[in-house]
Specification:
The chain has nine helices and 18 strands. By secondary structure, the protein is α+β, with helices and mostly antiparallel strands. The strands form three sheets. It has a seven-stranded antiparallel beta sheet.
Length: 335
């Protein structure tokens, strides 16, 4: 869920479940609205969640007029479009998974996310990184992708592998400011095993809580995320503590995580979150469900949804880090 990436710097919010993931051999062309996953040679935030293919890198296309070509061997992603947009519009994104070494020596999962937009026929890119702990990192490990876009008669490089590594290792001034303004509080009482966090925006006493997220797996013998989900009784709860989460952010995350077609969530898709509303994914005795606004429906994709959310989103990354019994940190990076 991206609730805070967007509120802090740009993106945000809520969702869950893969909308068209599959494994690629060496190269592929994509067209049409959808979300596509491909392998990460650098590894995934929580390896057991990704499966044998390590398919935790992501490419998304927001409309039928945007195309992308992925070359795994050359580590290149090429976006193309001939449509003219009346205002700046997100048309696709790239999410790459990696890791870095924190100052205390531990290896920490890192995610790089780039949004591709068009205004008229002009391309632009905005990017950020997030991690479950704050600070700078070295020994960065991430697949060395280059992202390009079509220009009249040529191809323009929007991101290089070197720029991506730099963004992960040394956050920009804007990202540093965002990290100060984003507060992540660990809600776990002494002895609590399951992850529970509150996200706030602002400094000190002026901080305003905007979201709470919890992952519960009663009866799980171990703390591994995959094991907790596989045992078939778990819940992933996302609660809006503010009515100010942008509707467009909610809409895009429901798309990214495969929930926009769920009939139960149409009010959420149309108007965004009201204060204190909850969206819950879970499973009871192995049967998945989605719950919202006091109603619950069967949802066979709950397992895949939770796995994608925990790997791809900032909030999911922090929840997963907690669930693995990592030491609690005062603040995480939600750039």
């Amino acid at each position: 869920m991206h609730i805070l990436s967007s509120l802090s710097v740009r993106r945000a919010t809520l969702g869950l479940a893969l909308a068209g993931a599959f494994t690629l051999a060496s190269a592929a062309d994509f067209t049409g609205r959808g979300v596509f996953n491909f392998g990460s040679e650098a590894g995934c935030p929580f390896a057991a969640l990704a499966g044998a293919g390590n398919d935790c890198n992501r490419l998304a296309l927001d409309d039928a007029d945007t195309h992308a070509a992925l070359d795994l061997a050359a580590h290149t992603i090429r976006f193309a479009s001939t449509r003219s947009y009346p205002e700046k519009t997100i048309v696709g994104d790239v999410l790459l998974q990696g890791s870095g070494r924190a100052r205390d020596g531990q290896r920490v999962p890192l995610t790089f996310h780039a949004l591709l937009s068009r205004s008229g026929s002009e391309w632009s890119v905005s990017s950020h990184a997030h991690s479950p702990v704050s600070g700078e990192f070295d020994d960065i490990r991430i697949d060395p992708y280059k992202v390009t876009v079509n220009e009249p008669g040529t191809e323009r490089v929007m991101l290089t592998a070197e720029q991506i590594v730099e963004a992960l290792a040394k956050p920009s001034l804007t990202a540093r400011l965002a990290n100060v303004l984003v507060q992540v509080d660990d809600n776990r009482a002494d002895g609590a095993k399951d992850a529970d966090i509150t996200i706030g925006l602002g400094l000190g006493k002026a901080s305003k809580s905007v979201a709470r997220a919890r992952f519960r797996a009663p009866g799980a013998k171990g703390r591994e995320l995959a094991e907790a989900i596989q045992q078939g009784n778990w819940t992933l709860e996302l609660q809006a503590l503010s009515g100010q989460i942008p509707r467009q952010v909610v809409q895009r995350d429901l798309f990214l995580y495969g929930l926009e077609s769920q009939s139960l969530l149409q009010p959420l898709l149309q108007r965004g979150f009201h204060k204190n509303e909850k969206l819950v994914l879970g499973a009871t005795n192995g049967k998945g469900y989605v719950r919202y606004d006091g109603q619950q429906r069967e949802f066979a994709g709950a397992d895949a949804a939770a796995r994608a959310f925990l790997q791809d989103s900032f909030i999911g990354l922090v929840l997963g880090w907690q669930q693995q019994q990592q030491p609690a940190k005062a603040r995480a990076n939600g750039r």
